[in-house]
Amino acid sequence: MKFEDRFDWSLFFILCCFAAVSCVALLSAQESNQYSDNFVVKQLIWYGVGGVAIGVMMLFDPEDYRKLSPYLYGFGLLLLGALILAPSSIAPIIKGQKSWFVLPGLGSMQPAELVKIFTILMLGNITTLHHEKFQKGTVKLDFWLLFKLVGITALPLALIMQQPDLGTSLVFIAIMSGMILISGIRWRIILPLFLTIAGIGSSILWLVIKSPELLDKYLHVKQYQLGRIYAWLQPERFQDAAGYQLIKAMKAIGSGQLLGKGFGDREVYLPESQTDFIFSIIGEEYGFLGSCVVLLLFFFLIYRLTNIANSSNDDFSSYVMVGIISMISFHVFQNVGMSVQLLPITGIPLPFISYGGSALLGNLISMGIAFAIYFHRKTYMFGDD
Description:
With 385 residues, the chain is mainly α. It has one domain. Helices cover 68% and strands 2% of the residues. Helix 2 runs antiparallel to helix 12, helix 4 crosses helix 6 and helix 6 (139-161) runs antiparallel to helix 7 (166-181). It is globular and about 60 Å long.
């Protein structure tokens, strides 16, 4: 087939729409004068870098990524380990987290954003290898596959928790959960597992609300460390501290009403709105309808990625696409949810829209894999298609 027939123009158009939305929202965000940086120009540069990365990644087919996955995964673990051991001159502690390498002249780089992609590739490879080796599954083999998937995710997760970065850790858990659901493991194993996890989470939340002293006694979790949970449940009570941004975000979104106030007509000042709370800018300036358009754009993205997964001719590609879909979906759900008090604030950016070089590059690299899978898909003369 010709290049124009193999290239995914639908996905390309969706990404162009995201770039336009991001630039318009960031142009408004930088008018708050909190920073002197031109976020729009920087974001466009990162989009350009990501576009080049996508072009390079399309040169490799899914089998190449499968072969490279153990090496990329190992390299990712080394990056996370080096981040912990690196001196503060290279890896400074920013807002209580040691999550970035700061390279003179190049800016900052968050390794975890790349390790997400490497982990998805590794999980897809391990799942494929398991089913190739064991054609007929048993309960014992299902537990063995579950153990491998959890183990592969646990290694980078443990290193990221050392930073500590709860938000990124939750993304890894979401990726693993999505991969487990489509891995072929029996539901009589998956369902009790997920119910148990949900029960533990609910119990911990109950202890946070009713008996935080027990968490201090048995898990050594201090009450001040639960500030974000308390601010989520009672933001008005903590509006001068941990609940400040949540209160401001909800006021901004609520004041937009149906149609919004229009570009540049924001009245609610929200610090760091160019990153984690970019959705509040969209809600205030373009209202409920503008917010729905953005969410609809994410729906089209997930729908397109699902079609790519369905059209792929090998299991590895399908598993990888599910991992990418799980990652993007969780990012959107968490970011929008924390802006409207549906979920606690965790510092997770809105994919393709929030400002941030590492996060944007990581998401575009995941799209590069999607482009490569679609570009190198095989068609058969007597296939169903």
